[in-house]
Amino acid sequence: MFGINYKSGPILFSFFLVACTAAEVQHSKLKKENSSSTIPYYPLNDVNDLDRLLEDIGDARIVMLGESTHGTSEYYQWRAAITKKLIQEKGFDIIAVEGDWADSYKINQFINGPPADSSAAVDVLKQYDRWPQHMWGNYEMARLVEWLNGYNQGRKPDSKIGFYGLDLYSFWEWAEQDQTAGDSCIRTVVSRIREKFSPYHNDALRYADSIRKSKPDSHILTEQLWEAVQNYLGTSIPVDESRFVLQQHALLALNGERYFRIMVTNRVQSWNLRDSYMAETIKRLLQFRGKNSKALIWLHNGHAGDANYSNMGSAGFTSVGAILRKQFGRAGVYSAAFGTNKGSVLAGYYWNGIPQKQVVLPAKGGSWENTLHQLSPENKIVLSREIKNNDSLKKWIEFRSIGAAYSGAAVYGQSIIPQRFDAFLFIDSTTALHPIPR
C-alpha cells in the first residue's frame, strides 16, 4: 500500500537537507545564546540607568554592595548613587559598612545631628584613624555623608538614616571614651579592658602578635564584660539606643578578642568568626530599627557574595552573603558586586603601608572581568537571573580581588558568578580613590 515512488526521491532528499540545515541553525543559535559572547547587559552611564537594577532588587530587605578593591573611586560613587535611590525610592534606613564600630558611630551621630557643610563632613571622616584610613576617610564618602546629613534634617527620629560599622579590628577603641552606661560592675570591667588593651595603641594585629609570644589572658575580661552586660540588660535586643550601643560594645569586644586570638592559629575559623559577627550585627540592627527597616551593606565582594559558589566555600570559608541568604532567604537578600578591567587603585604596598595610587593591569585572559571587557569596553550592569541558564557560565571562572594592601599582584579566585551574586556592575576603566589628607 505504501510503495516507494522513486520519482519523489530528490524531493525527499531536498527536504531532508532543509530539515538538517534548520536543525543545525537552531543548534548553532542555541549554542550562541549560551556563549559568553551573548551575555545580556544594560548600559551604566548615568543614575537613570540604575532603575533597572532597582527593579531587579525588588522587595529585598538587605542589599549588599560589594567591590573588588578597597580603593576605587567609581565603586564609591556608584554605590553612593544606589544608596541614595534605595533610601528615597524603597525606604532603606540603615547603612552598615566594613568599618570600625566606634568611628562609624561618630558618622551616625553626625548625620543625625544639626545641618553641616562639606568641610564638617570631611572633618568627621578624619576620625577613621585605623589603617586603612582611606577606606572610609575619602572625599567620595564625604559627599555622601554630607548628603545624608541634609536628608535627615526635619525627618522624624524613627525615619532618619543610621550609619554603622561592622568590623572587629578596633574592638576595644570604644572603651577609651567616657563610659557612664551600665552599672558599677560593667564600669569596673570596662576600666580593666581599657587598662589591658591600651598598650597596643588600637592596633589589633599588634595584640595578635602578642598572643603568638605570650598568650595573655585578656579574653577573661571580654567574657566578663559580656556576662555583666547580659545580667544588666538581658539577652534580647534593647529598644533604647544607649542600651543597644552598650550591648553592641560588649558583643564587639567578645568577638573581636576571639577573632585575633584565633587568627594566629586558624585562618578559616577566624574569617568565619568575623563574617558571622558582621552578619549578626546586621541582623541586630534590623531588629533594633524595627520590622520595616531595610539595610544597605558596603563591603568587599569576598564578604558580599555567597561563598558557597566560590573556591572559598570549598576551602571551608563562609561569607556574610551566604549567612544572610540562609537566614533571610534568597528573595530577602540581594548581592551586587563591582569589578573592573583596568585602571588605578589606592592601596598600600603592604599592611600599614602609605596608601599610593597603583596600576590595575588589564584583567587576566579568560577571567570574568576580561570576558565582560571583550563583550564591549563600556560600563554595564549584568543581572544574574538573565544569565543563570547560560551553560557557558554554569562553571568555575576566575575572578579578581584586590585588598587594601596590594603590590601589583591581584588574587584570582574561582566563582560561579550567576550564583554567587545577583548582579554585577562592571566599570571598564577605573581610577584611584581620593583620600582625605592627614
Describe it.
It contains 16 helices and eleven strands. With 438 residues, the protein is α/β, with parallel strands linked by helices. It has one domain (40-430). Strands 1, 2, 3, 4, 5, 6, 7, 8 and 11 form a nine-stranded mixed beta sheet that branches. A two-stranded antiparallel sheet has the order 9-10. A hairpin with an 8-residue loop joins strand 6 (333-347) and strand 7. Helix 9 (219-233) runs antiparallel to helix 10 and helix 11 (267-289) packs across helix 14 (320-328). Residues 1-35 have low confidence and may be disordered.
- Low-pLDDT stretches are 1-35
H/E element order: HEHEHEHHHEHHHHHEHHHEEHEEEHE
Mean of all residue-level pLDDT scores:
91
Summing up helix and strand content along with how strands pair, one would put the structural category as alpha/beta
Total number of domains: 1
Radius of gyration: 26 Å
| Biggest β-sheet description | 9 strands, mixed
Terminal Cα separation, in Å?
97 Å
Bin the helical content: 40-55%
